Amino acid sequence: MTHTARRIGRTLALVLPVVLVLSGTLAVTSVPWAGHSGESQMLTASSQNVSVRATSRAPQDVLRDKLLAELQEKDPSVALTHLQRAVEERPSLAKHCMSIAKALGRAAVDRFGPTRAQTYSQPVCDTSFANGVAQQTQGS
Description:
Blueprint: H1 2-29, H2 59-73, H3 76-89, H4 97-112, H5 114-119, H6 128-139
Helix pairs in contact: 2-3, 2-4, 3-4, 4-6
C-alpha cells in the first residue's frame, strides 16, 4: 500500500505544477486588461507598436544631444558657451558637465580635426573639452 501511495504522490508532484502553470498562463491571457468592453481581448506581445521610443529622457542626455547638434551646425565655442550657461542655470547638471564637454571634444575632433578642435578649447568643466580632444586624437 505504501508503495502505491508513494507512486501516486510522485506522479502528482510532477504533474500538478505543470497543470497549475498552464492554467495560470491561460487565465492571465484571457483577462480583459484594457477595460470593460463587450468583446473578449487576448494579451499578445505584438498588440502594440513596441518600437516606439520612450518619451522621457534624462536632462543631461537632452542637453548633450542639443549641444552636439549645435557643434555640427556652428562651432564648438558656441556649444561650450551654452554648456556653461546650462550648468549655471541648472546646477544639477554640474555632475554631468565633464562627460558632456568630453563628448563635445571628441565630436570636434571628428568634425574639424585635432589641431583645429584644440583651438576651440575653453576652461569649461575643468578643461574636459581639451581632454576629450586629446582622447579622440590618441584613439584615431
